[in-house]
Amino acid sequence: MGLSKNNTDKLKVGRRQVLSTTAAAGVISLFNIKHAAFAADVVNIGALYPTTGSLAQTGQGCVNATKLAIQMINDAGGIKSLGGAKLNLILSDNQSDTTVTRTETDRLISNNKLSAIHGCYASALTLIASEVAERARMPLLTGSSSDQLNAGTRHYTFTPFARASQFAEAQLKMARLVSDKPKVAVVFENTAFGTATSNGLREKAPGLGVEIVLFEPYSAGFADASPLINKIKASGADMVFPVSYLNDLILIIRSIKQAGLKVVINGGSGGFVLPDFQKSVGDLAEGLLGVAHWNHDMSPATLEVNAAYKKQYGDFIFEYSGGIVAQTFMIAAALEKAGSADPKKVHEALTQLEFTEGYAAMCPGGRVKFGPDGKNLYAYPVGVQWQKGDLVSVFPEKDAHASLIKS
Amino acid sequence: MSGKFSRKTLWLSVLFALMLLLPQFVTSRFYMDIVIRVLLFSFIGVAWNLMGGYAKQLSLGHAAYFGLGAYTSTMLQINYGISPWIGMIAGGGVAMLASLPIGALCFRLRGPYFTISTIAMAQVLMLLFLKFRDFAWGAEGTTIPNLGDAPWMMQFEEKAAYFYIALALLVVGLVVTWAVERSWMGYYLVALGEDEDAAQAIGVNVPKMKRHIYLISTFLTALAGTFYIQYIYFIDPPTAFSFNISVEAALVSIVGGIGTLWGPVVGTVLLEVTSTLLQSWLGGGHGGVQLTVYSLILMAVILWRPAGLLGLITDVYHRIFGNKQQSEQEAALDG
Amino acid sequence: MLVTVAQALINGLLIGGIYALVSIGVTLIFGVVKVVNFAQGEIVMAGMYTSYFCATLLGIDPLVSLLISMPALFIVGVCLQHFLIRRVLKLGDMPQIFLTFALSLLLTNVALLLFKADYRTIQTSYSDTAIHIGPVYIAVAKLIAFGVAMLLSALLWVFLRTTDLGKAMRASAQNPEVSMLMGINPDLVFAVAVGLALALAGAAGSLLMPFYPAYPMVGQVFILMAFVAVVLGTLGNVTGALIASLMMGVAESLGIQFVGADSGLIVVFVMFLVTLIIRPNGLFGGKRR
After folding, report:
1. Residue in A250, A258, A261, A279 to test binding to C, most C beta-carbons within 10 Å
2. Closest Cα in chain A, distance from residue B167 (Å)
3. Which of A33-47, B51-65, C144-158 comes out lowest in average pLDDT?
4. What angle in degrees, to the nearest 10, is found between the helix axes of B2-25 and B159-182?
5. What is the mean pLDDT of residues B41-45?
């Protein structure tokens, strides 16, 4: 998909302003938070991410992306159908904690006149926020991958990106690209994210000609990965799929190296697609495969966003953060169509709209249309590989930015 | 004596009437949420205090019973369509049953040994619920089905309903504590808390006392578990068996004043309100500030008011009303 | 099969050495001062950050920065004892546990404020290398950590048994009243004990740094295991904590190998609870309560 010239120009203006206002940004956003409820010409968007607790690091990345997206939209003139109303971000820290998420979502929605919210990175947290949002009839957009988010009677939860079950299929297909008869060890953290993703792998492996020789949940946050690696070694696997957040993943990768184990590694999503993963393990990342619901080199639009993000925050924009930028543009487009800040109107617009261009369509395949269960009908994940310190898209071919290197 | 008694009764009646009318004044869902949390954690604190405060058995594993209560009612609801109102009582029963073998084991230990063994127990339960995925949804957990306004299934559109449930729980907890405090059991427990061996020597059946108070304490804690899960709509092992629940239960009692009727309530009001307000003022982009302040308050209370803040409040009250005799009476109970 | 078991034993012993440094600190403080320090894990975290910044800012190898983190945390320990713990000594279990718990909360969140939640690693020449002996391997960084941990434990043992201060410490541990009558200054003894305990935790941090990422919450990974080891080895018993830690490491590793990677802790806890049924005061506690 292409990016209209119009959009590019807007972004360039945006970036210049980004530079000039970076220093003042913090002050301004504080000011806005205090007075948002009284100003008539702003539209409030709520964002719930963990900036403290165990997920604080990625949560901070999510907040950064949210700020960038809001700034891009405001610099481009805000919501035109609302007289150029600016978007105002109301941030909330759910402390990586389920209880706090419940309270904070409620507080966010009832204390502010919001038009939509998005969050929360971890699936378990998003599930709670979505239950609260559902009862408050507040549209919630999320990049979290748990299939449970589309189940049941939810009407207000929208998931623009690939589901956990779809990640598995992509991972298995990539395994077949590397080897004819792959013998895979699946080791996954015993959390909502880990079990959801690994269940998909187990179900789909036989149909796609992949043999799973070890299927092992582990307690997240271990002191030592080597017992787990010992187990992988004993299973005779030639390929490992770890489903892990950053800390465990760093230990797994390092311990595989220490053990001298020669295996192909597909790190899936989670911690694997974060810039810090590469920084932490250095050269060991080279050639490792993964899967993501978003990547910064998928399209010209994502490359633009990545450049702006990199300028402001130093690292490339990772999967979940990139998805947040797209989601924020989807909310903006829905506001534009609704011509109202009423969350019910925004919800209606989201169910009707189809996004095929611009930043809102930054999704593998470049097309977003929500089905009745809130799932994007056209979503699928993109296969990625660490090449020369960068995470590049390598699968499927139509989204590939570079070709897959077989080690 | 009767004058004092009636004044105390008067204050309590006024307080209770105000609480009943509270939803009329507090319309913000945010403030209502704080009040509900205060009531709930006060209740958990009160339940813990029976064990930890009166019998001085420092358990940091009450999350085990909180979680068992929560899982029992949720499994009954989702697998068999049984109302959480019934599930709540069933959960209490399961917790009491579980408390017998767990108590039999942990009560053999004393001091820090006891404390650490209770932590381990709650952890083991959490790990088992994580491990056996087919038993109860494993790590993925489950959300409580949204039924709209369904009072029979403990689901309400209005926060006020949750408020009244939490208030009722707290009243039950306080009445139970009040009754225990004034029964022979209360005196035995205080004696046991002072010195186990001495209590045993003067004829208190220490193991039986511990077992009985543990049954009451765990039953109440399990009720809180059911309510909590119905309130947050979601259950998974780390939430239901959260170490934070165990800590908070003990913490509010310690900050307020252990072994006192109102201590856990006073502690919760202070801690929950500070924590929630800090979160609301600072939330977003200030990672760490809130919990830093929270921990500083905690340290300050422990260093300067180790008997808890309730004593401070009653001191002030009696200084204003000049009632020295009662103050001494309270102090004796506190000790 | 034999190779797998041998490897599991090696892995367990190596990580057990790290658990030992943490748990010996906990047990030393308990033995002498009679306070369970819930913040010991956060001291490990402080040691890790010390070594991290020594490596990134000054280019000092983490093993060398042991010589910085240990004295620095010794001083922190003396201050901790003097300004905080000393004031709650007469107040009983609860305020003590919750004071150290609040301290743990404080340290984690101050670290979060100062360093953010980033995972910080350092790459040393020996970080990812291993010695291969036939079919089994020993990771170099972990072997060094294990060796230094055993050396420090041995030094502590010698200190407790041969120096006057060490003997005073053991006397205080066994009977505080009598030792005070004998003219031992409890303030000094207590301060040194807490200082040494924190220095050991700091050493654990420095030794972990070459192969384990530092982040504000890292202390929680090690503290629970350390507690179990401390109780199992009988609170206050340094040798007991050391042996129990190694046992914990091996039990965890074998549990992961033969029961399941999500069951390492279950195996450890079950072992712990069973031991306590048989010996309520830990393995080295005898019948005395």
Report:
1. A258
2. 18
3. A33-47
4. 160
5. 95
| C-chain residue closest to B126, CA distance | C266
- What tokens were used for A81? 């159908």
> Which CATH superfamily, name and number, covers A5-162+296-376?
Response regulator (3.40.50.2300)
pTM of the predicted model as reported, rounded to 2 decimal places: 0.83
The nearest alpha carbon in chain A to C264 belongs to A219
The domains of chain A are located at 5-162+296-376, 164-292+383-399
Distance CA C121, CA C221 (A): 16
Q: Which residues of C touch A61 (CB under 8 A)?
A: none
Question: Phi then psi for B26, rounded to 5 degrees?
Answer: -90, 105
Q: Is the peptide bond before C79 cis (omega within 30 degrees of 0)?
A: no
Mean pLDDT computed over C237-244: 91
- What mean pLDDT comes out for the span C204-229? 90
**Residue tagged 């980004």 (tokens):** A18
Beta strands in chain C (DSSP E): 130-133, 136-139
Interatomic CA distance for residues C32 and C191, integer angstroms: 10
Q: What angle (nearest 5°) sits at the alpha carbon of residue C14, between those of residues C11 and C19?
A: 120
CB atoms closer than 10 angstroms to residue A81: 13
Q: What is the pLDDT of residues C10-69, one digit of tens each?
A: 999 999 999 999 999 999 998 888 888 989 999 999 999 999 999 999 999 999 999 999
Overall fold of domain A164-292+383-399? Rossmann fold (3.40.50)
Residue C42 near residue C256, CB atoms below 8 Å = no
Q: What's the pLDDT score for residue A4? A: 37
Q: Does B134 contact chain A (CB < 8 Å)?
A: no
- Pick the closest to residue B26 from B157, B160, B149, B155 (CA basis): B160
DSSP B277-320: HHHHHH-SS-TTHHHHHHHHHHHHHHHH-TT-HHHHHHHHHHHH
Task: State the pLDDT at residue B322.
Answer: 65
Segments making up each domain of chain C, as ranges: 2-219
| Strands of the sheet with A140-141, listed across from one edge | A86-93, A42-49, A114-119, A140-141, A157-158
Chain A residues in contact with C129 (beta carbon < 8 A): 258
Is B327 in contact with B308 (CB distance < 8 Å)? Answer: no
The amino acid that residue A335 corresponds to is: L
Domain limits, chain B: 26-242
- List the chains bordering chain C where 3 or more Cβ pairs fall under 8 Å: A, B
Spatial separation of the C-alpha atoms in residues B27 and A365, rounded to whole Å = 46
Q: Which chains touch B (3 or more CB pairs under 8 A)?
A: A, C
Burial A106-145 (b: 16+ CB within 10 A, else e): bbbbbbbebbbbbbbbbbbbbbbbbbbbbbbebbbbbbbb
Q: What 8-state DSSP symbol labels residue A223? A: S
Q: C231 to chain B nearest CA, in Å?
A: 6
Chain centroid offset of residue C258 CA: 27
Highest mean pLDDT range out of A185-194, C179-188, C241-250?
C241-250
Q: How far is C107 from chain B (nearest CA, A)?
A: 8
Residue C214 pairs in a beta bridge with C120
SS3 (DSSP) at B94: helix
* Residues A376, A369: Cα–Cα separation, whole Å: 5
